[in-house]
Specification:
DNA-binding region: 29-48
Pfam families: TetR_C_13, TetR_N
Order of helices and strands: HHHHHHHHH
Number of strands: 0
Low-confidence stretches: none
Largest sheet: none
Protein name: TetR/AcrR family transcriptional regulator
Radius of gyration: 19 Å
Strand content: under 5%
Shape: elongated
Domain HTH tetR-type: 6-66
Keywords: DNA-binding, Transcription, Transcription regulation
Number of helices: 9
């Protein structure tokens, strides 16, 4: 009879996400994962098969936690322009408080196109964020809050680039005035 797992897999993935987010994939050692998850090395590999498989799960968890929050704001109630302001504000606040940057952007920088699975997860995340920005911008255009002649796709891509740029910049320079100024400049472009 197989032994039941002595740990909560969801908690383990959350903890692994934090370790990978702080260190990246390449600089995270199996021992760091074992220590953070509070399990033995054998349990780590039995549960997740490999460091890379655990990293993939951690990226998916990051999507579920961070990207879904952004999308919920963009899809929420209220005027489109205010939802866009709240979404960008969420990113600025998170970047000020947590200088690890965006885990997906970090993965994109670390792997580029070298890892098909990671690249797919990163692209899917960015595409989903951009689609949510675009939908909100188009809603604002229909309501007359945003210039209806503006290219909604280009504005959405611009906002996606801006929020990721803010996250990267905050890793080196978390000055709240600077980050808020960048956000405000981006929002004025709408």
């Amino acid at each position: 009879m197989a032994r039941a797992k002595a740990f909560d897999v969801d908690v383990a993935v959350d903890r692994a996400m934090e370790v990978f987010w702080a260190n990246g994939f390449g600089d995270t050692t199996p021992q760091q994962l074992v220590d953070a998850l509070g399990i033995g090395r054998g349990s780590l590999y039995n549960a997740f098969t490999s460091k890379h498989a655990l990293y993939e799960r951690a990226l998916r968890r990051y999507y579920e936690r961070e990207t879904v929050r952004l999308i919920e704001i963009l899809d929420g109630p209220g005027p489109a322009r205010e939802r866009l302001r709240a979404a960008v504000g969420l990113v600025v606040e998170a970047a000020r408080e947590d200088r690890r940057g965006c885990m997906m952007a970090n993965a994109a920088v670390e792997f580029g196109e070298a890892d098909e699975v990671v690249n797919h997860l990163v692209r899917r995340t960015f595409e989903r964020q951009e689609a949510a920005f675009r939908s909100t911008i188009e809603e604002g255009q229909r309501a007359g809050d945003i210039d209806p002649d503006a290219d909604a796709g280009a504005l959405a891509a611009f906002l996606l680039t801006t929020i990721n740029g803010i996250r990267v910049l905050a890793k080196a320079d978390p000055d709240p005035r600077r980050l808020a100024g960048l956000a405000e400049t981006a929002l004025r472009a709408l």
